Amino acid sequence: MRWSRQQIVLVAAVSLLATSLLGVAGWWWRSATGVGSVNGLELEAPKAVPELPLQGSDGQAHRFQDFRGKVVLVYFGYTTCPDACPMTLSKFARVKALLGERAEDVQVVMVTVDPQRDTAGRLREYLEVYGVDFLGLTGDEATIQELAAAFGVYYAPYESDTALGYLVEHTTSSFILDRQGRLRILAPYDLTAEQLAEDVRYLLRRD
């Protein structure tokens, strides 16, 4: 079933609001008790990620459960994004560098919000500029919509006056999954690479 733009917006907005409220509650609790601390918003109740099949930029089929055992940095973006996507991926590359040997325990994943243009091959060429082990995921529109809604991600294409024809408006926050494959931390776009690295280390120590 292909969702309408209104349905995508509603589902993503409700999911993002619920997740954000959980994160704010967790932040308040840690501030009041002094227990634990992250730079992003940590969910007190980790959120399961749907087991949806996607095509990887490595030519293999993947589900998020495949990455269990690693902390996963997740971003929803696209290869012709003019600003937020390259900035975020550059930060992820810096995070991996800051982690040193622990970088082997971290997987970077970008899920495309432009599946019509972002083939597995195109994602591979785009992501290898930032990291040879960065993985892109694509799929049919319905699957991408369902996964985005589960993360609370909004996206919608719009016509632009560029040679690209259209761009995609999308959520710019990042997401960090724990070693059990659960959504644990929401990372606002304005976090630095150093702050993201601290949050990743936090999950590596705890799990």
UniProtKB/TrEMBL annotation:
This is SCO family protein. GO terms for molecular function: metal ion binding. Cu cation binds at C81, C85, H170. It comes from the Bacteria. Belongs to the SCO1/2 family. Disulfide bonds join C81-C85. It comes from Thermalbibacter longus. Gene3D superfamilies: Glutaredoxin (3.40.30.10). Residues 43-205 form the Thioredoxin domain. Transmembrane segments: none annotated. Keywords: Copper, Disulfide bond, Metal-binding.
